Amino acid sequence: MSRAGSVITGVGLHPFGRFGDMTAAVMGAMAVDAALADAGRPHFTAAFCGTAYGGVAAGHRVLGELALTGGPIIDVEAGCASGGAALQLGAMAIASGDHDCVLVFGIEKMPKGVIRSSFFAPWQEVAGLTPAPATFALRALRFMERTGVTEADLAALVVKNRAAGVHNPDAMFRAEVTAEAVLASRRVCDPLRLWMLCSPNEGAAAVVLQRADLVADRRAVDVAAVAVRSHVPGDVLGEDSPLSGYEDPDRLPPSRVAATEAYEGAGVGPGDLDVVECQDTDAARELLVWEELGLCPPGGQPAILADGAFGPGGRLPVNPSGGLLSKGEPLGASALGQVVEVVRQLRGEAGPRQVGDGGRGPQVGLAHVIGRGANACVTILCRRKTMVQ
Amino acid sequence: MELPDRVLTTGPDGPRLVGGYSATSGRHHFPARSRCPWSGALDVQVVELPPSGVVRWATTVTAAPPGYHGPVPYGLGVVRLDEVDVEAGGLDVLARLPADIVGGAAVALATVALPAGDVGELVTWEFR
């Protein structure tokens, strides 16, 4: 896990959605330019680009749009956690002492339809063993069997996130939905209906990292911890997509391990969080993440959904951006899109989505992603000079 | 198109999944690999796995995923194989299933021929 020592001084985002012929490089350049402007255009000496489908030299194409090549540009692939892994490398570059300012960005222009991944051999595709929604559905069934969560609870989660997305101009879907409409949407893979699944799409996000001790700007946000973890083998429904597996109650999921590492590194616990952005590729995934991040006990999800504790205006807003269910998911940009949201929340710049606690404003935020690999990334950000001792 | 070696075999007793067993991990895996995926050890013995089990979780795929040319809908799920690693918690395998099958159903291994686009067909496994 990377050591502390960096702050985020600038953030930028290209909206998530579908943008015709606009290339990922152009979207990335827009996000990067916005982040650099937000930071006062400091000179950066390295760049890290998170992307899963961007291809060779994806980061170079982005910075080439801006005539900002010349330094090291490192592409980072870690599935849905590509941007988070890029952020960790950026923070490590600063912690090493070799760099005082680095640029971290994520880009993606997802093909339409069910995600196709080079992870699988052609024969696995022909055999029908690869559809991501089916794997999500099987995990959801296992989770529901263990916790008692119902399809109605999945629909309630979608209602929560879509309500939040109404206030996010960068989201793809900005209309509220009812639980009835969610449950009536097209059956994809039981128990998952269409509106319980996020939509792969396009977008970009960028942040500027600088050495904390060289920055006096109070708008800067401390990178308290970035933890990336892969899986322990054996879970037949793990993000490493094996063809066999076994049960082991002692095997911890990578999200839980990454969260533990991040909490320890930041010196905070789940009870210190004021805002969370987490993976909601499907409705059941977010509910499972609540446990993995230590936000609720197993089976506690229905009560939390009922009392709105994690909804807009609740005691701990989770996915105030609307989550992937509202934004869609451009893989390489997803993690950094969460970081941009958390930074804006901590700065008090989130407009109608602003999380507040009656005056003090949010002090500690967490961003979480989990994706194929497996790759789990947990990032903890703090308002400056508010680290919990 | 053909499955890779050490995935599926068909003999006088019918089809069998080809797995591996490692004494280092004390567990089986599927399909058979040169190293045990649970321990990384090289002591893998290639074995035929039991051709029956119980469905643990199953869903129905309603749209053809990328690279798939076969019929939809079809089932996909997790099958707990009979009599494998029982004391260690059992061995689960990912498998095609009949559409709309539910958890708890007893199933048996079978083969199915699926169209493989421009490269003919693929004979693979499923449980019914």
Note down, in words, how this protein is organized.
The complex is a heterodimer of chains A (389) and B (128). By secondary structure, chain A is of the alpha/beta class. Chain A contains 12 helices and 12 strands. In chain A, the strands form 2 sheets. Chain A has a 9-stranded mixed beta sheet with strand order 3-2-4-7-1-8-12-11-10, sandwiched between helices. In chain A, helix 2 (58-65) links the parallel strand 2 and strand 3. In chain A, helix 1 crosses helix 2 (58-65) and helix 6 packs across helix 10. The mean pLDDT of chain A is 95. Chain B has 128 residues and is mainly β. Helix content of chain B is 0%, strand content 48%. Chain B has strands at 8-11, 14-22, 27-29, 44-48, 52-61, 74-81, 92-97, 106-115, 121-127. Chain B has a 5-stranded antiparallel beta sheet with strand order 7-6-5-8-9, with no helix packed on it. In chain B, strands 1, 2, 3 and 4 form a 4-stranded antiparallel beta sheet that branches. In chain B, a hairpin with a 2-residue loop joins strand 1 and strand 2 (14-22). Chain B starts with 7 loop residues before the first strand and ends with a strand. Classes of the chains: A alpha/beta (389), B mainly beta (128). The interface between A and B is large, with 40 and 46 residues. Strand 9 of chain A pairs antiparallel with strand 7 (92-97) of chain B.
Molecular shape of chain B: globular
Find the structural class of chain A using helix and strand composition.
alpha/beta
How would you name the oligomeric state of the polypeptide chains in this document? Answer: heterodimer
Poorly predicted tracts of residues of chain B: none
Shape by Cα distribution of chain A: globular
Largest β sheet strand count, sense and barrel closure of chain B: 5 strands, antiparallel
Tally of extended strands of chain A?
Answer: 12
Using the CA coordinates, give the radius of gyration of chain A.
Answer: 19 Å
Strand content of chain A: 15-25%
- Summarize the helix and strand pattern of chain A as letters: EHEHEHEHHHHEEEEEHEHHHHEE
